[in-house]
Specification:
Largest sheet: none
Number of helices: 11
CATH architecture of the largest domain: Orthogonal Bundle
Shape: globular
Structural class: mainly alpha
Bound molecules: iron/sulfur cluster
């Protein structure tokens, strides 16, 4: 369903002219998608995102959850023969549409608010705090608890937060732009 409050033509124009001018060189080789660690969670694979942009089907991308699940790891860019940065594209799509999306999708709004709060406090992301805060905030206390246990057992994330030097200054900057 198209969202009339979002100017899809403007977003496409900005992407092609300022964010990723190489976008129209995409040859649909699929190397980006085959290396993407989050692809299983995406509704549209990275090479499909490029194809949708090229064909002007911006509403499909914006109304999917894909742009919110990109990890911004940039593996796609390093694999791309045309050096197309899909992470930069995803980021631009989030920035250009977040106000409208957070108005409609309360869970995205909660995540955004919480994530920014966590970064303001610690100066970086603190995953256990983020997961617990989000589960409490959305009323799904035990959501993904089994996965969380596995991740902790394998020491992929630490239970204790790290505090980054200069976090107060960073917090003030975040507050200013929210
Ligand atoms: S790797 Fe690059 S050229 Fe190949 S499909 Fe992905 S974006 Fe297009
Ligand atoms: S930056 Fe996003 S799209 Fe690219 S490989 Fe990482 S998760 Fe996938």
């Amino acid at each position: 369903m198209a969202d009339t409050k979002i100017d899809y033509n403007q977003i496409k124009d900005d992407l092609e002219h300022y964010i990723e001018p190489n976008i129209n060189y995409c040859c649909q080789c699929g190397k980006c998608s085959s290396g993407c660690p989050a692809v299983e969670s995406f509704e549209y694979k990275p090479h499909q995102i490029i194809s949708l942009i090229q064909s002007g089907q911006m509403d499909k991308i914006v109304n999917s959850k894909t742009i919110w699940l990109c990890l911004e790891c940039d593996i796609c860019t390093t694999r791309c023969p045309e050096h197309i940065s899909i992470a930069a594209i995803m980021n631009h799509l989030r920035v250009a549409t977040w106000q409208e999306r957070t108005r409609k999708d309360k869970n995205i709004a909660k995540f955004y608010k919480l994530f920014n709060k966590v970064v303001q406090i610690f100066g970086r992301s603190y995953e256990p705090g983020l997961i617990m805060g989000l589960n409490v905030g959305t009323g799904r206390i035990f959501n993904d608890a089994d996965i969380a246990l596995d991740i902790l057992k394998k020491r992929k994330i630490s239970m204790l937060p790290e505090f980054v030097k200069g976090r107060k200054k960073m917090g003030k900057t975040i507050k200013k732009y929210l």
